[in-house]
Amino acid sequence: MHPILSSPERRRVFAAAWVPIGALAGALPFWAAGGPLGEAWPFIIWGEALAAPILASWFACRFAPFHRGGERIVMTVGGAALVTAAVWVAAGRAWLWMVVPEGSLADVLFPRLAPLAFGAAVVLFIAATAVQYALAAADESHAERRRVLEADVTARESELRALRAQIDPHFLFNCLHSISALIGSQPSAARQMCLELAAFFRESLRVGSQPRIPLATEAALVEQYLAIEQVRYGDRLRVDIAMTPDVEAALVPPLLLQPLAENAVRHGVATLVDGGDVTISIVRRGRYVDVRVENPYDPADTRPGAGVGLANVRARLEATYGGRADFRVAATGTRFTAALSLPVEDAA
Fold first, then answer.
1. Rounded to the nearest 5 degrees, what angle is found at the Cα of 244, between the Cα atoms of 239 and 249?
2. Which of 10, 18, 112, 241 could cross-link to 33 by cystine, CB 3.0-4.6 Å?
């Protein structure tokens, strides 16, 4: 597309700049040839008409792209400038025959001002071509950056979809393992867990297609997951979720916190005979949301875990926020803490 006519802003800038340039292109040769500026109106109109061939210089740019080399550019642009100037001067002669009487001052001075006008047209054509080369290069650079950005976004979205798909079977496997442990001893609890699991997956599927969901919705999903686990662990699992109202609308990737809660239950509360409490606090600090998931654990328990949940959270944070998010885990005494710091992204 024509680099000057491709956007309304550029068209306005060209129109505003060309009005005085075109007027000078026609009036100055007339004045230099000895004509008074008060009688230069036919030449001013003639100069403004040079805008059409100036804009048409874009075709010379397309015929001789910048990467083709200097010789082709010089020959193409130089030849087009000479032809354009000659046609414009000839058109000026015809224009004067139509608007001024034969033998008038404008008619008499035209042979003297024609070489000056010709030279001015050549210079303006070459300058306009240089500007259009620069604009075309800037547009191509912008388009290339956009293509790179779109490719990066596509790659990140693919990575997020793969990571999101990883969570579902991992979570389902753990829940089925819990259900199988209840079937023999507590069939009614196993049935209740199946119903809770179905409700959880129904809700997670509803929001899972969205790239971001409000923190209030994410917290509700975590609470729903912990309710599933409470069917199995009963009084051994106690839950405390505290969230300040000013972060409820902040947006986060769906099921980002659920692996943290799952890790707190399976590698914390489940390792203790008396169980324990899973505490989740969500507060806002400036332009960031701080999330802390704390749980007790048995330091002597050496059963290895697959490490899928925490690794998935870390990878999703990197793919979603780059270096703007922070994720830390720490074990102090008999307490384990997973802490997130996320940039605030409001729905508005």
1. 110
2. 112
Do residues 76 and 64 touch, judged by C-beta distance below 8 A?
Answer: yes
Residue linked to tokens 């769906």: 254
| CB < 8 Å & 24+ apart, contacts of 124-129 | 124/21, 124/25, 124/50, 124/54, 125/53, 125/54, 125/57, 125/77, 125/80, 125/81, 125/84, 125/85, 126/77, 126/78, 126/81, 128/54, 128/55, 128/57, 129/57, 129/60, 129/61, 129/77, 129/80, 129/81
Could you read off the pLDDT of 288-326 as tens digits, one per residue?
A: 999 999 999 988 876 665 566 788 788 888 878 878 889
Q: Among candidates 335, 320, 331, which has minimal Cα distance to 278?
A: 335
Report yes or no: 301 and 276 within 8 Å, Cβ to Cβ: no
Quick one: CATH architecture of 184-343? 2-Layer Sandwich (3.30)
Q: Are 27 and 47 in contact (CB under 8 A)?
A: yes
| Phi and psi, residue 13, nearest 5° | -65, -45
Buried b (16+ CB within 10 A) or exposed e, 300-322: eeeeeeeebbbebbeebbbbbbe
Higher pLDDT, 177 or 174: 177
Per-residue pLDDT tens for 3-41? Answer: 777 778 888 888 888 888 888 888 888 888 888 888 888
- Per the structure block, which two tokens stand in for 98? 């139509």
Q: What percent of the chain has pLDDT over 70?
A: 88
Cβ-contact 248, 274 below 8 angstroms:
no
Q: What is the band of 44 on the pLDDT scale with cuts at 50, 70, 90?
A: confident
The confidence score (pLDDT) of residue 169 equals 63
The residues that bridge with 250 in the sheet, in sequence order, are 346
Q: How far apart are CA 230 and CA 238, in angstroms?
A: 8
Contacts of 210 (CB under 8 A, 6+ apart): 254
Task: Give yes or no for a contact between 226 and 239, defined as CB atoms under 8 angstroms apart.
Answer: yes
Confidence of residue 163 (pLDDT cuts 50, 70, 90): very low
